[in-house]
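About this split. The held-out portion is used to measure sequence recovery: a designer receives only the structure tokens and must propose an amino acid at every position. Recovery is the fraction of positions where the proposal matches the reference. Here is one held-out target exactly as it appears in the evaluation file.
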């Protein structure tokens, strides 16, 4: 199996030679893209090429942090130039494969369409590391017992590298297609990670990264979250930064606020490369600060080159100069521009065709044939539209009549069914029958037409104003003698736990929507205000005594009642409801109505005399 690894590096002189020698013992070829190193990394890479290793080095001295675009473009070109390569592995200079050959990296269940994920095994520097050991992967001998965050590295099959809809996520920790993450197949092989090897190297790493980010385009101006706090610490207190470097190596790339206590174990890394030949012996701190200084000089030179004599250059020449300086000759930005230019050309061609069609239509409108045809087709078209409207009107009326018949055949209505169905009852929910909306009732029934309404644990979800409206609407549409049976949580229940579960804003299910906690007095007065005659079926009074009248489930079953709720087994009333029947009174006889009118007339006529007599007596 053929596998190529590729990496973008910047100022990694302490580890670059060990990185190349070790990983080339496993992969077929290694491509290293130097991002403008100033610490001697490029010279070490050139010496390794001259040694005859299967190593290809390219230069992309980009000012600004666009490595992801550059890297993916190079991977695609590499795949096109090497048709025999099956897999492509993005690597950073601090990542070392823990395998003996490339075949071990690919799990058996992997397919040519699935990415493969390699888990990190993080190594951390300590104050006891041997400073005389030049090879950092031999010097750093401790690793984390358990990873603080499950970071992985993605290994890509050839098909995904060539797919233009596929994009690598930052750090090559994942991959997506058309904005959707692709789930990887996990490999049994791990990848050793040496992010922080010494204080001087950590200075170079943090400062180089932040300078690159700040020099990037306006879309990428903020430094990465891994380096914000260390960079600020270096500015505020360099001594504290130096002391923090070993702790930072144990908590590298962990999200802020993560509760993780790293534990180390001594476990030397099995380095497979040959001895280092080109890595220079330099004082650690001197190497770090020299790297930072050279990086700043390079960026200052780039800025000076951009600003000097630009007034004498044409716009095209300025763009070419900026393009050369920023190292973006072949980034995806130019590919996207070419795609947009092709799309614009297609749109312009379509507009020309449309203009021709419009001109042809205008010519036809001015012709004698068109004008004569309109005299015939116009009235016919109008008649056809009129006929269609008549048909649509008839269909709407038939649908309304069918709906009306559907609801008229249901004298008993279950309000707020919530998926419950009862034989002989028409079930409704809030979207079909809103208790606060008289129009919902009027569209289905005539007033004084329904025999019964049943609402179990519905009224507590209404505000006091809405509760009054709902009671009056039900009274209007019930026929005389009709029944409104209501069950709600009982505000006089003696159990504090019950009250906590049912009160507005309580801890029970659905309590976040409860508006009122009724008692038998408040619910009774509410129903009587609408004209109902109230019959209390089950309730607790203010003295915490439970009252229960005989009632029939045929008139409306209540599941959360004293006699039917399973929580009330063995005679313990753990969960009951306030259950009330509201009866719409029958109309009075004509004689009684006449007597009522006479009584009211007499009282109004003699009211002044009655009032005067009362005052004399007082």
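Reference sequence for scoring:
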């Amino acid at each position: 199996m053929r596998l190529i690894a590729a990496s973008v590096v910047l100022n990694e002189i302490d580890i670059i030679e060990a990185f190349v020698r070790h990983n080339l013992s496993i992969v077929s070829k290694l491509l290293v893209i130097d991002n403008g190193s100033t610490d001697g990394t490029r010279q070490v890479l050139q010496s390794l090429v001259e040694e005859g290793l299967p190593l290809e080095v390219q230069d992309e001295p980009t000012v600004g942090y666009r490595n992801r675009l550059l890297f993916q473009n190079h991977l695609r070109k590499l795949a096109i130039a090497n048709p025999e390569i099956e897999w492509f592995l993005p690597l950073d200079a601090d990542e070392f494969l823990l395998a003996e050959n490339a075949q071990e990296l690919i799990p058996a269940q992997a397919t040519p369409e699935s990415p493969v994920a390699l888990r990190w095994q993080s190594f951390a520097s300590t104050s006891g590391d041997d400073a005389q050991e030049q090879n950092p992967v031999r010097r750093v001998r401790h690793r984390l017992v358990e990873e603080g965050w499950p970071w992985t590295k993605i290994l890509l099959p050839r098909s995904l590298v060539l797919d233009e809809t596929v994009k690598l996520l930052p750090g090559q920790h994942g991959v997506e297609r058309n904005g959707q993450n692709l789930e990887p197949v996990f490999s049994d092989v791990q990848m050793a990670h040496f992010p922080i090897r010494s204080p001087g190297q950590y200075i170079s790493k943090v400062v180089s990264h932040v300078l690159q980010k700040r020099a990037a385009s306006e879309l990428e101006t903020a430094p990465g979250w891994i380096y914000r706090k260390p960079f600020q610490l270096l500015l505020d207190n360099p001594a504290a930064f130096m002391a923090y470097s070993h702790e930072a190596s144990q908590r590298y790339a962990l999200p802020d606020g993560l509760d993780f206590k790293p534990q180390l174990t001594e476990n030397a890394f099995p380095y497979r490369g040959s001895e280092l030949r080109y890595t220079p012996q330099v004082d650690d701190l001197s190497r770090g600060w020299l790297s930072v200084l050279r990086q700043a000089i390079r960026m200052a030179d780039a800025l000076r080159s951009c600003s000097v004599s630009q007034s004498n250059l044409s716009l095209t020449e300025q763009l070419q100069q900026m393009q050369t300086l920023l190292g973006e000759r072949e980034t995806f930005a130019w590919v996207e521009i070419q795609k947009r230019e092709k799309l614009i050309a297609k749109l312009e061609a379509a507009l020309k065709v449309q203009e021709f069609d419009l001109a042809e239509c205008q010519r036809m409108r001015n012709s004698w044939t068109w004008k004569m045809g309109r005299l015939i087709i116009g009235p016919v078209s109008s008649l056809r539209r009129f006929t269609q409207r008549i048909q649509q009107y008839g269909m709407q009326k038939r649908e309304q009549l069918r709906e009306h018949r559907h609801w008229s055949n249901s004298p008993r209505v279950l309000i707020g069914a919530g998926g419950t169905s009862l034989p002989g009852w028409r079930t409704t929910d809030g979207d079909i029958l809103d208790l606060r909306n008289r129009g919902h009732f009027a569209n289905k029934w005539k007033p004084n037409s329904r025999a019964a309404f049943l609402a179990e644990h519905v009224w507590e979800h209404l505000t006091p104003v809405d509760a009054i409206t709902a009671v009056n609407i039900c009274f209007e549409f019930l026929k005389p003698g009709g029944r409104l049976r209501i069950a709600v949580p009982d505000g006089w229940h003696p159990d504090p736990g019950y009250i906590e579960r049912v009160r507005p804003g309580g801890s029970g299910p659905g309590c976040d929507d409860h508006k009122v906690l009724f008692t038998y007095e408040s619910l009774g007065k509410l129903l009587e205000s609408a004209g109902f005659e109230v019959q209390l079926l089950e309730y607790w009074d203010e003295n915490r005594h439970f009252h229960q009248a005989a009632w029939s489930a045929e008139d409306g079953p209540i599941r959360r009642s004293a006699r039917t709720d399973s929580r009330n087994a063995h005679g313990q009333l753990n969960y009951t409801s306030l259950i009330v029947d509201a009866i719409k009174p029958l109309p009075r006889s004509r004689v009684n109505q006449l007597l009522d009118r006479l009584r009211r007339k007499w009282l109004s006529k003699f009211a002044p005399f009655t009032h005067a007599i009362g005052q004399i007596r007082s």
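Annotator remark: The longest helix spans residues 368-408.
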